[in-house]
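Our working data are protein records whose layout never changes between entries. Instead of coordinates, the fold is spelled out as a row of discrete tokens. Here is such a record, shown just as it appears in the course material:
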Amino acid sequence: MIRAMSAAPRPFPVDRRHWLLATGAALAGCATPPSAPKDEIDGSTWARACRFDGLEPVGPWTHRRYGNRRPTDYRAAEHGGRPAVHARSDAGNSLLRLTLKPTELPPGARLRFSWWADALMDQADMKDPQADDAVARVLLSFDGDRQSWSRRDHMLSELAHLMTGEPLPYATLMYVWDNRYPVGTVIENPHTRRIRKLVVQNGPGQLGRWVEHERDVRADYLAAFERPAGPLTAVGLMTDANNLATRAEAWYGPLTLRELSLTTR
């Protein structure tokens, strides 16, 4: 596992409110209201093909937007012979999310997902907060013991709760298709250690086709956060191009989360 740690946190500005707003707006786990149901996605062939064994969804798939930023457009589609979600970002940034009843993952839980992209963003850099865009991300959010959090993370969670009615997730793991860093690289969000990105695909070698991934979620969480995973609380998809003010486009196949014993039958 290759670990690329973020730079040391900057000192708190004198104006606490200004710092909170500027930093909170950049977090992928904290979207501002409204959280609109994506009915055309929730009732789609793609959504019906998603399976999360032993987990209970809380409501439909929702579109989580970030303040007044231009959102990414997510639509149910057919692509390359399979049901899909088509994500198109024109300098946009938003999240398609399914909230789950907090549940401990079974041993050997495997997440299977697929994505398709025709182009990457050459200037994207996940370690640079001014260029942290990605054509394709799959997100998992987890609960846990918040007593170990830093003062910074408690403040961000307080802001998130005030803005959205939801606290900052205890931890968010992002699986990312990247053009710069090797597969296996773990990169911390520059604003909070509660969000970490794991590169599972690198470079343009498989553009223009469906690419399949199967991940051991417990093992990946342990590698990224250096402690066992807590209850899973949400899954999501994210295509964003707001930092570079460019375009990004991807298709996502159905997601499944199943026990290892079930995947081998």
